[in-house]
Each structure stands twice: as C-alpha cells, then as structure tokens.
Amino acid sequence: MSADDQQFWDLLSSVPNHVRQYSEGVADFLDKTVDKAADNVRHTLATASWVPDYARPKPSAPPSVPVVPMSTWETMTTWVSRHKVMTTVFVCVTGYVTYRAVRHSRLVRKSRRARRAKNGGRLEVVVIAGSPSLPLTKSLALDLERRGFLVYIVCNTIDDEVMVQNMSRPDIRGFSIDITDPPSAGASIDRFAAFLQTPHAAVPRAKPNYLTLTSIILIPSLHYQTSPIATIPPSNFADLFKTHLLQPILTIQAFLPLLTSRLAPPPQPQTGDGEGEKTVTEVPPTSTPKVLVFTPSIISSINPPFHAPEATVCSALSAFTEVLTAELRPLQIPVTHLQLGTFDFTGFVPARGPHNPGFLPPSAETQQWPEAARLAYARNYESQSSSAISAGRIRGLRGSSLRDLHTAVFDVLDGSDKSDVVRVGLGAGLYGFVGRWAPRGLVAWMMGIRKVDELSTWERPNSRSSIGSEDEEEPREYIAVGRGSEIGANVWKD
C-alpha cells in the first residue's frame, strides 16, 4: 500500500470520531436549550395566577453548589474580620500579659546586691527617716543590710536608739538628730557629712574606703485615727499634723543641705607601709543620692468617710513630694514617691488574739459618742468598719509580700526604675484606678454607707443648768475615739 492510500484510510478512520464529537456537542446544546425552555415554562406556569393550584408545577430546585471545606487560616481570618473589637482586646491583653511576664522573669533573675569594695567592705549608705517601731522600717532596714548597705535609722529619742540597738546588727546604726532644734540638727548633719568624707576600714588593718550616700528614705508615721470629724478634738488634729505631717517635712528640710552638696572625698596621697609597699585609699565613684518618700495610698485614693486624718495627711504629703520633685529635678536629684498598698507583716507585729484587752468593736466605740453624733454617724460608721474593703483592707487577703516592696526599693536605688511614682502592695494600683474613675457614691455604697433619714433635734442649752454644772464637770464638746490597740487589723498601725 502506497503512502497516499495510507493517508486516505487514516482520514476515513477519523471521520467517525469527528461525527461523534460534533453529535455530542449538538446533543448537549439541545439538552441545555430544552432544559432552559422547560424551566422557563415551569416558572411561568408556577407564577401564573390563572393556573389552578393542583395543576401548578413546583418550581425547579436550584442547582447544588459544591461545598469546599475552608482551611484553618481562612477560618481564622474570617472570624477575625467578624469580631474586630474582640480581637483588638485579646491582642492588647495578651501583649500586656506577655510583657509583664517577661519583665517579671527578668527581675526575678536579677541579682540585687549593693556595691562593695575589693576587700568586701561596705561602700553605700542608706538613711531611713522613720520610727524604728514601725514594722515597715524594721523590715526594710534588715533587707537593705542583708543586701550590703550600711543603714542608718534616724532616732529622735533615746527609746528609738534602744530599738535600733536591739536589732543586734552592726551595720544598722542609729542616727541621732533633733529636727525640732535647727542648730542641733545642722550640727548632726555636719558630723554625718564629715563621717562620709573620712575613709573607714571594714576590719582592722584593712585598706580604708570612702562611703557614699546612696539614698534617704522617708517613712512617715502610719498610725491614723478613724472616727467622724465631729468627734475628733482639735488637739488631736494638732498633734496629728505635728507628728505625721510636720515632722517628715522638717526631716527632709534638715537633709536638703546634705543632698544639694556634692560630698567628694578629698584627694589622698599615697602612703607607704613598713615593707615599702604603697597603699591607695579606694575612692568610690561620685553618685547622686536619691530621695524616696513612702505614703499609704489606699485611703487617700478613695477618700472614704471617717478617715479624715489619714486622707488629709497623705494628700498633703503627696503634694509636698510633687513640689520637692519639681525643686530637686534641676539639681539632678531624683525623688521617687512610693505609694504603698497593704502588706503582710507577719513576724513583725504581734498577732491579735480574740481577747485582746483594750480592743473595742465599732458598736462599743459608738456608745462613747454624744447622742447627736451617735444618731448621725453610728450606723454608717459600724457598716463601714465591718465592710470587706474597710480601712484599705480586702477581707480574706493577707496583703502583698514584703519582698515586693524590697525589690521595688532596690530597683529605685540602683536606677533600674526611674519613675516618679511607684505603686507597690496589694490594692495600691486598684484603689488608685477606682479613685480616679469610679463614682464616689458607688464607692461609698460598696463600703456600706447609706442615707440617714432620722436626725436629732437641735436643743438650746439651759443657761441656768449649764452655769450650775460648770463646777461639777467640764463641758465635753468632742470625744476622741481611737483604735490604737487594734494592731493586727490594719497593717498601717504602729
């Protein structure tokens, strides 16, 4: 068979395939056309009003759409696009928690020790201006001494010096100063400055070193009276402002000349010993002392009723600290305000027993008030005293560990935390937020304060009876109500 014949037979063999292909295409076209026409007729008859219901055809079912499963990424993106607000909140909370966790882990691993000399002697001095009887002063002094600081506690009386000596720590010493006598206080500061400018040896026959004043920590008295303003005598207010407000201010004022002067040690010549070796006194690098002011912040943040002494004094100390910060900032002397919450002072204060003598419940205290004051304030005072958040305490919680306070203080001393205000302790941040944003009425309602509908009637005193009773007893316009014996109930008690 020739090549032309083979080509002809190949062409003939391909004809059936083309016929089948074209016929299938025509058949598919006819099927689609007929189906479309049938659907149109069915839709027209189904929507026509003249066709009876029994003869009306049912509309054709829509074509099925193939379901394609979505991937995990597509599901997540779809959910995020539908819940944008929730996604934003989740991202912010997760980022903040992650940041706090990473920061906390780094702070936990950080080694917090004071700088020492090459021979192990202490170089940094911290002055604590606070009563040695305060648990906060004791715990902070012991912790700073353990970390390598030389701690001086300001003592105003002989009893304070005895308390410091009873700590039995050679590196915790008393600093006697009478802030009520400016010349005497100035002489004490001069002696302390001369002490810092004199080299000291840690042990006999060791190389002497100069000491550096690292910080002055002010811890005001933390014991306050809780009572209605009407029942607090003016003498109590005067004593309160003198011991809780004026004394801390005068203490800082006495130390200001020492803070604003650079205590640079004088240059020391090289001295030779008996063997001909030369010894050079180690001079520490100059550093600026820091000022730390402690104040309880819970009561002053929300200003609840029956806490006028603490709210007034703490607010005044906060304002004084802000002014002090503004005055010392140009001198590059950092001032940090530590706003404290509640701490667990177990081991520093005696436990309150069930039969503590001298302790009176609020109902018994109100019985000592005049009839008018008792009728006006007694119910709310008892409710507020027994509420779960009274006196800055949260019922059922012991308070933050003192380690949190010690860590925060050291971070301020070494410059890790340069904030002007540091909140530490249980409730410090929460009560600060509540005091800024929560309505005062809501806070008072949560503490049990309710409206008083019944008040006493004003009675004009009888002139004859008052004159006749002058010799028998003195008139009592005010009654001092104090709960000084309740030591364990509030950690701020002395």
Overview of the molecule:
α5 links the parallel β2 and β3. The chain is elongated. The termini are far apart. α4 crosses α12. It has a seven-stranded parallel β-sheet, sandwiched between helices. Strands 5-6 form a two-stranded antiparallel ribbon. It is an alpha/beta fold and 494 residues long. It has two domains: 47 residues, no CATH class; 327 residues, Rossmann fold (3-Layer(aba) Sandwich), CATH 3.40.50.720. Helix content is 46%, strand content 10%.
Write a short abstract of this structure.
With 494 residues, the chain is of the alpha/beta class. 46% of the residues lie in helices and 10% in strands. A seven-stranded parallel beta sheet has the order 3-2-1-4-7-8-9, sandwiched between helices. Strands 5-6 form a two-stranded antiparallel sheet.
Blueprint of the fold:
Blueprint: H1 3-47, H2 72-82, H3 84-109, E1 124-130, H4 135-146, E2 150-155, H5 158-166, E3 172-176, H6 182-196, E4 212-219, H7 234-259, E5 271-272, E6 278-279, E7 290-296, H8 298-302, H9 308-328, E8 335-340, H10 362-366, H11 371-385, H12 402-413, E9 421-424, H13 428-437, H14 440-446, H15 463-468
Parallel strand pairs: 1-2, 1-4, 2-3, 4-7, 7-8, 8-9
Antiparallel strand pairs: 5-6
Helix pairs in contact: 4-12, 6-7, 7-9
